[in-house]
């Protein structure tokens, strides 16, 4: 019995610090070679900067009032003009960090390698307050409505007041024995609701003011005979638009729900720990084998599937204008037609595997590689 407990604990630890590729082992297929394509739309790097390595944390840059704020695992936090890429400020948190930065008008909110949440003065770097968390956090804190909400590796969501750091509420969901590393699973809806992806293939919607559960729904149900086969987690950010919530699960499905009631509208089988994005008509998903697929938002009908990037460690998708953008392990950014999935543009950006999913900023996309490369891409 003791031996089984030790083995289970070791497996759980590996999954918490790994990702979907952990399961593939040495038999993972060779990456698909890039083929020639017909370039229809230009894609260019608007500006770039070099940060420190991201390690295994979910270091996603934050956009706030015309500036980009980005952190690295060493504790360096830098702020850039979003238009020009000019650095306007650099601060040192004075300790290693595990995840991306949350930003308010006055504060930077950061998770530390010792399991704390710290609030730094945005201009001076002075520590305004610090709170001990129940475990490490690997994703960006969400700042909204005068508070900051943090997800920790034990599945808890905790809210603290921005002004004083005092805990306002906490929400705890049951966790399976084995879970995937989660670097980004919270989506705020204004200052009213917070959508969270959960272990076990579920999503939940919480009231931001109180942490009360508004509704919970199942994206995918665990299947398989072993604990590994039954890992079914929503590890990427659910998407919200026009009264609809969509999410995707590893070893599971992509599903869309009515936002107020949580009523399931449709679901289709697909495995993804990379994530999805929406436009006004479609849902776009990067599968764990690197294929990219599009589904009709109303019916769930599969519209197209791109296999040309399979096994290239393809990132989650982001919208760039009317196009879909993904990156791969060799530092290429690929622009896809939203209508057919065909590759219509490509550029090399120098960032390796991304720390988190690319971030859409309208006519620009912002990304941060694990090697510290920060880049703003645009159409040309």
UniProtKB/TrEMBL annotation:
InterPro entries per the UniProt record, alphabetical: BamB, PQQ_b-propeller_rpt, PQQ_rpt_dom, Quinoprotein_ADH-like_sf, WD40/YVTN_repeat-like_dom_sf
Predominant localisation class: membrane
Gene3D superfamilies: YVTN repeat-like/Quinoprotein amine dehydrogenase (2.130.10.10)
Domain Pyrrolo-quinoline quinone repeat: 74-305
Topology relative to the membrane: Lipid-anchor
Signal peptide as annotated in the record: 1-22
Alphabetical UniProt keywords: Cell outer membrane, Lipoprotein, Membrane, Palmitate, Signal
Domain of life of the source: Bacteria
Gene Ontology terms: biological process: Gram-negative-bacterium-type cell outer membrane assembly; protein insertion into membrane
UniProt similarity note: Belongs to the BamB family.
SUBUNIT field: Part of the Bam complex.
Protein name: Outer membrane protein assembly factor BamB
Organism from which the protein derives: Gulbenkiania indica
This protein's encoding gene: bamB
């Amino acid at each position: 019995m003791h031996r089984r407990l030790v083995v289970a604990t070791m497996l759980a630890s590996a999954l918490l610090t790994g990702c979907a590729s952990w399961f593939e082992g040495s038999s993972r297929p060779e990456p698909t070679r890039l083929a020639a394509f017909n370039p229809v739309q230009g894609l260019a790097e608007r500006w770039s900067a070099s940060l420190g390595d991201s390690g295994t944390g979910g270091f996603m840059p934050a956009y706030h009032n015309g500036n980009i704020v980005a952190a690295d695992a060493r504790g360096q936090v830098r702020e850039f003009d979003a238009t020009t890429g000019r650095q306007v400020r650099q601060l040192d948190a004075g300790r290693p960090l595990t995840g991306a930065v949350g930003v308010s008008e006055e504060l930077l909110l950061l998770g530390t390698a010792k399991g704390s949440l710290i609030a730094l003065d945005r201009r001076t770097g002075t520590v305004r307050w610090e709170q001990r968390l129940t475990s490490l956090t690997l994703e960006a804190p969400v700042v909204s409505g005068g508070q900051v909400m943090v997800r920790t590796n034990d599945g808890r969501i905790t809210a603290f007041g921005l002004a004083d750091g005092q805990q306002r509420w906490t929400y705890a969901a049951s966790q399976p024995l084995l879970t995937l590393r989660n670097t980004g699973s919270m989506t705020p809806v204004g200052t009213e609701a917070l959508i969270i992806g959960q272990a076990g293939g579920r999503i939940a919607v919480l009231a931001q003011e109180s942490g009360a559960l508004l509704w919970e729904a199942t994206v995918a149900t665990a299947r398989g005979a072993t604990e590994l086969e039954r890992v079914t987690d929503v590890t990427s950010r659910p998407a919200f638009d026009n009264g609809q919530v969509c999410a995707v699960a590893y070893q599971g499905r992509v599903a869309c729900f009515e936002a107020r009631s949580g009523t399931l509208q449709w679901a289709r089988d697909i495995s993804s720990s990379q994530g999805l994005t929406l436009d006004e008509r479609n849902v776009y998903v990067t599968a764990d084998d690197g294929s990219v697929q599009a589904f009709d938002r109303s019916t769930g009908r599969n519209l197209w599937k791109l296999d040309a990037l399979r096994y290239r460690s393809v990132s989650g998708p982001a919208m760039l204008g009317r196009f879909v953008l993904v990156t791969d392990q060799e530092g290429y950014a690929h622009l896809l037609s939203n209508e057919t999935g065909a590759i219509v543009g490509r550029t090399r950006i120098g960032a390796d595997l991304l720390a988190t999913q690319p971030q859409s900023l309208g006519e620009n996309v912002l990304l941060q590689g694990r090697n510290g490369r920060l880049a703003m891409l645009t159409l040309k």
